[in-house]
Design the sequence.
């Protein structure tokens, strides 16, 4: 019974946990979070070509020039997620509920008719996966949480009356805490020793850039484009394996890896020619094909690679804002996003599927203060797992948790703003 002789299993285990850094809820596609402001969410994020909010730092910083004075905005979203698993054969149906709170802060300032600048802090990517310690897929995933924080300063230049451009820096901080079970035999313990608890904690930082443009080709029409570069994050962490029968009850193995967060491109057209009404429609492309594999290198010299083979995705959205009165605006929108994970590599640690989001909201303006509320219902299309992926472990006798996965989420967002 020598755990050290079984370190060959430690690499897949850490690899598994780092792969979990690619799962999330409330997503556009893959693991990109799309809720970064209550007003934007209420319009289905159809705010790439028009804005009334400093959250435009995320959606299209070229629109900052259309905000007067100095603007502050602070917001958060409650994500209430429900999942169900129905086994394809023998097994136990499982369900779980979880909640997450991605938040944002923005400040913008208009220095002149030509130049505006701002900074935003938000969570552009993230995950939340939580299953019981005894469910069919316990050797694939139990409890996992990952958060990214993007510090995004940006500057916008009004080149002409009709055309503006912007550029910004993305400083990405990543933090992860990820868990699963391991069969005792995998680490050299007898079956009667019971499962081994496996946990990974790691963090890292990466830097990228973003650019945007806004153009008014004719009266009442604006075309907006926003691009964010890929960001490679180097992750350093420790895998911890605990069981009363291990030497000292716990063994840790440091590991390193890299995750490339995908490039993103959004383009939209807004129309304001109907009194009190602004409508917008847009397309979104995300470069998930950069996530073709994941490699991990351990401090003991072991290294391993696993394929992911994700593909680029497309999505679209449409939304509207109706200024009911000077104080009240009514919002509505719809978002569709493709799944990035193919069936061959899909597993329950990555609840990725084609998704539909139905959004409603309101903006309330009180002189210098404004408050935005929105609600969205996110429906994932059913996803069926029918492969032999089992978290880096061999196929049977270890469960692959094949079956049907159903997920939906309720989103409640609020943002508070102030104008100086």
Sequence:
């Amino acid at each position: 019974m020598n755990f050290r002789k079984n370190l060959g299993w430690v690499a897949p285990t850490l690899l598994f946990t780092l792969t979990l850094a690619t799962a999330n809820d409330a997503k556009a596609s893959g693991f990109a979070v799309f809720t970064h402001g209550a007003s934007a969410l209420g319009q289905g994020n159809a705010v790439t070509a028009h804005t009334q909010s400093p959250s435009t730092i995320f959606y299209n910083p070229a629109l900052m020039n259309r905000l007067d004075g100095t603007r502050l905005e602070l917001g958060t979203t409650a994500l209430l997620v429900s999942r169900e698993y129905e086994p394809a054969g023998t097994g136990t149906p499982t369900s779980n509920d979880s909640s997450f709170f991605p938040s944002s802060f923005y400040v913008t300032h208009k220095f002149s008719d030509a130049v505006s600048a701002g900074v935003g802090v938000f969570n552009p990517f993230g995950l939340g996966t939580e299953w019981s310690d005894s469910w069919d897929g316990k050797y694939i995933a139990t409890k996992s949480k990952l958060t990214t924080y993007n510090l995004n300063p940006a500057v916008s230049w009004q080149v002409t009356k009709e055309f503006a451009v912007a550029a910004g820096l993305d400083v990405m901080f990543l933090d992860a805490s990820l868990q699963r079970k391991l069969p005792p035999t995998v680490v050299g313990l007898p079956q009667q020793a019971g499962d081994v608890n496996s946990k990974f904690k790691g963090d890292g930082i990466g830097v990228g850039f973003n650019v945007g443009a806004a153009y008014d080709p004719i009266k009442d029409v604006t075309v907006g484009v926003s691009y964010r570069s890929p960001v490679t994050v180097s992750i350093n962490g420790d895998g911890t394996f605990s069981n009363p029968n291990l030497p000292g009850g716990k063994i840790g193995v440091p590991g390193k890896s890299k995750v490339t967060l995908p490039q993103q491109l959004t383009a939209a057209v807004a129309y304001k020619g109907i009194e009190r009404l602004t409508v917008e429609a847009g397309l979104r492309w995300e470069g998930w094909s950069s996530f073709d594999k994941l490699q991990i290198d351990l401090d003991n010299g072991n290294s391993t690679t696993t394929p992911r083979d994700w593909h680029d995705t497309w999505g679209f959205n449409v939304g509207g804002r109706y200024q009911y009165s000077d104080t009240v605006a009514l919002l509505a929108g719809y978002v569709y996003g493709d799944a990035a994970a193919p069936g061959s590599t899909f597993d329950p640690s990555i609840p990725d599927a084609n998704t539909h989001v139905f959004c409603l909201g309101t903006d309330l303006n009180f002189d210098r203060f404004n408050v935005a509320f929105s609600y969205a219902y996110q429906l994932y299309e059913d996803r069926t797992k029918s492969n032999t992926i089992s978290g880096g472990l061999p196929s049977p006798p270890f469960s692959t948790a094949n079956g049907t996965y159903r997920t939906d989420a309720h989103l409640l967002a609020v943002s508070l703003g102030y104008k100086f």
User: Anything to note?
Assistant: The chain has one domain: 3-419. Residues 3-419 form a domain with the Porin fold (CATH 2.40.160.60). The chain is about 5% helix and 55% strand. The first helix runs from residue 10 to 19.
